[in-house]
Amino acid sequence: MQLFRSVVRGVGGYLPSKCIKNSDLEKSLSTTDAWIVERTGMKQRYVIEGSQNTSDLASEAAKIALANAKIDASDIDLIVVATVTPDHPFPATAARVQAKIGAHKAFAFDVNAVCSGFIYALSVADQYLKTGMAKRALVIGADAMSKIIDWNDRATAVLFGDGAGALVLEAVDSSHEDYNRGIQSTHLFSNGCQYDLLYVDTANANATQPGHVSMQGREIFKYAVKLIGEAVETVLKENNMTIDDIDWFVPHQANLRIIEGISVHFKIPMEKMVVTVDRHSNTSAATIPLALWEAVSDNRIQKNQRVVLEAMGGGLTWASALVKW
Questions:
Q1: Tens of pLDDT, residues 147-162
Q2: Which domains does the chain show, CATH number per domain?
Q3: Which of the listed residues 90, 124, 141, 282 has the most CB atoms within 10 Å of its CB?
Q4: What residues are annotated to the active site?
């Protein structure tokens, strides 16, 4: 069987218009801008308004990614949306995205691995492309975390925001000039024994009485530094590389202190880290593609550079990937 390589053709991101700064949270919570920045590095977050849903965020990011790739939605074969805040419990939010962008021949489904969801979705799409079951795919990370946050809970209200990011992938065969680019490897991990460290206390985030995020912050911090670091080590070992061989590290933007902890413990220079958490906050499955969108848009990430993606989320789940841009 001929194997293909999944090459990135386009990237897009979308943030809703409403911005909540730390000073706004001071009015309703027992907190201060200084307290939030010291513990999280976050200064603001964006949230949906009115009738906006996750599919709206995902569709806008997808449209930008398609325009960036110069590929029409009708040429997409597969849509995978990573989300924990679907428009409805079913059908999949990906189906609504398919309709909104006009990707009529694509098959579409969702993936839920919380903050690791985008890398999980990327890995799933890569399997379809490299085995020839699809030619072009949209991989989207999108979450409206504001729907499942208790805005009276200081421990979680300061951490999360809404947004979406997307990649367009195309399968190329070994005769193509871009065959040495694209997704080099993906690595997925889970440990359900830590299920209760981070969860939402109802299955339906859109119910009349929606559930809220419950998190054991100190334990999550400890596991995040350890497990994300180990995921990075796995991807480097798999590809026979060292940190010096990598141009950029794009971590899940959960907390600046976690990113700094990974930098220190695993000797990854902060100047190689793409950081957006100060402006975007934690957008769950959207953080990595949003960070990619920003770093590509400002020309930090260049063609043929090696980029490591890394994340940990509820489940617990954690994951890493190496992409040659």
A1: 999 999 998 999 999 9
A2: 5-172 (3.40.47.10), 182-324 (3.40.47.10)
A3: 141
A4: 115, 252, 282
